[in-house]
Specification:
By secondary structure, the chain is α+β, with helices and mostly antiparallel strands. The protein contains 3 helices and 5 strands, in the order ααββαβββ. It has a single domain, classed as Heat Shock Protein 90 (2-Layer Sandwich), CATH 3.30.565.
Length: about 130
């Protein structure tokens, strides 16, 4: 996360970002993989808004991420999005034409005290 350090992000934001990147990248590698195609990771700092956007895109637009609230603590998989939901200030998905999707998460550099927590947003349609 050299880029986040260069952007002078707080250690707390860097730690949250590391966990979110790991979960979204693992999901893209496991569930969004198509033979011969990789996923794309993009980090974007919006200094004016004070937010970091983490976006992971893959080629499997039909595989939309879902949180399964009945996931048990002893289950071997399926808890990654619960972690993203807990760590991100906002997260969601959007189509990535022609057939992919992007899962994104926003982290505020200084989270407001009155933010709704957790908050998910799903945009667009699967395609």
């Amino acid at each position: 996360m050299e880029r986040l350090t260069a952007w002078e992000m707080s250690p707390e934001v860097i730690e949250r970002a590391e966990h979110i990147v790991a979960e979204l990248a693992a999901n893209a590698a496991l569930h969004g993989r198509v033979q011969g195609r990789d996923f794309l990771l993009a980090l974007t700092l919006d200094k004016a808004a004070g937010t970091l956007r983490i976006a992971v895109s893959d080629t499997r637009g039909e595989c939309r991420p879902e949180i399964h609230p009945d996931q048990g603590p002893d289950d071997e998989s399926g808890r990654g999005l619960l972690l993203v939901d807990a760590l991100a200030d906002r997260w969601g998905t959007e189509p990535r034409p022609p057939s992919g999707k992007t899962v994104w998460a926003l982290l505020a550099q200084s989270p407001p005290c009155d933010r709704p927590f957790p908050f998910r947003e799903v945009t667009g349609t699967a395609g």
